[in-house]
């Protein structure tokens, strides 16, 4: 006997609109997979033998030419914090330079305050377990272990103790904002 349901299936080729939509979805899904495979700025630093703590927590993107080492790192804002209870560090919203294994040169966008004066950090070199930060005429060495974690704007590497301090004192929101501190 035959089919008695009355349903007839007919093959119709995709319409051009449906084909275009399907192709667009396929392209977008492959782009999102490719973007997910892109290493983070922190992973790029590690691949050149630098610790992730050279960048603060709010990196929004980067560009790197792996053949020349020229890079740009984009941060969500300009910020500053104290490093190892001594130097004030300031990051601009864009950091540029050239990176090779154990050396960052032509650095732009990171400054250090020494006494009353601001100096641009122009080079960072890794020598074993030490990082050498150069401002051109002078330099300072710090242990790599100081940079295993990413600093945060306002509180640097010691946000826990800063939060405890803020919890013990009643500072107005305006004063906290003036200091550039982000309260979590």
Report on this structure.
The chain has four helices and nine strands. Helix content is 25%, strand content 34%. It is α+β, with helices and mostly antiparallel strands and 184 residues long. The relative contact order is 0.12. The protein has a domain at 41-151: At5g01610-like (at5g01610, DUF538 DOMAIN). The chain is globular. Strands 1, 2, 3, 4, 5, 6, 7, 8 and 9 form a nine-stranded antiparallel beta sheet that branches. Residues 1-36 form the signal peptide. Pfam families: DUF538. InterPro entries: At5g01610-like (IPR036758), DUF538 (IPR007493). Keywords: Signal.
Regions with little confidence, pLDDT below 50 for 5+ residues:
16-35, 162-184
N-C termini distance: 74 Å
- Output the CATH class name of the domain at 41-151: Mainly Beta
Helix content: 25-40%
Query: How many DSSP H or I helices?
Result: 4
- The CATH architecture of the domain at 41-151 can be named as Roll
Q: Which overall shape is indicated by the principal axes computed on the Cα atoms?
A: globular
Major sheet: 9 strands, antiparallel
The structure class reads alpha+beta
How many beta-strand segments?
A: 9
The name of the CATH topology of the domain at 41-151 is: at5g01610, DUF538 DOMAIN
CATH H-level superfamily of the domain at 41-151: At5g01610-like
Instruction: Please report which band the strand proportion falls in: under 5%, 5-15%, 15-25%, 25-35%, 35-45% or over 45%.
Output: 25-35%
Overall mean pLDDT score? 76
The H-and-E topology, N to C, reads as: HHEEEEEEEEEHH
InterPro entries: At5g01610-like, DUF538
Signal peptide: 1-36
Pfam family, one: DUF538
Keywords: Signal
């Amino acid at each position: 006997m035959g089919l008695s349901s009355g349903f007839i299936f007919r093959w119709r080729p995709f319409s051009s609109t449906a084909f275009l939509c399907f192709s667009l979805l396929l392209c977008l899904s492959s782009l999102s997979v490719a973007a997910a495979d892109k290493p983070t700025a922190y992973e790029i630093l590690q691949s050149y033998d630098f610790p992730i703590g050279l960048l603060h927590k709010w990196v929004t993107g980067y560009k790197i030419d792996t053949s020349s080492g020229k890079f740009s790192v984009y941060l969500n804002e300009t910020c500053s914090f104290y490093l190892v209870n001594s130097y004030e560090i300031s990051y601009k919203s864009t950091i540029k330079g050239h990176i090779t294994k154990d050396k960052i040169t032509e650095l732009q966008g990171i400054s250090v305050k020494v006494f009353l004066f601001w100096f641009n950090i122009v080079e960072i070199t890794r020598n074993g377990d030490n990082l050498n930060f150069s401002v051109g005429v002078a330099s300072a060495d710090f242990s790599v272990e100081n940079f295993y974690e990413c600093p945060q704007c306002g509180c640097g590497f010691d946000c826990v103790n800063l939060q405890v301090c803020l919890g013990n004192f009643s500072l107005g929101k305006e004063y906290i904002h003036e200091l550039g501190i982000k309260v979590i």
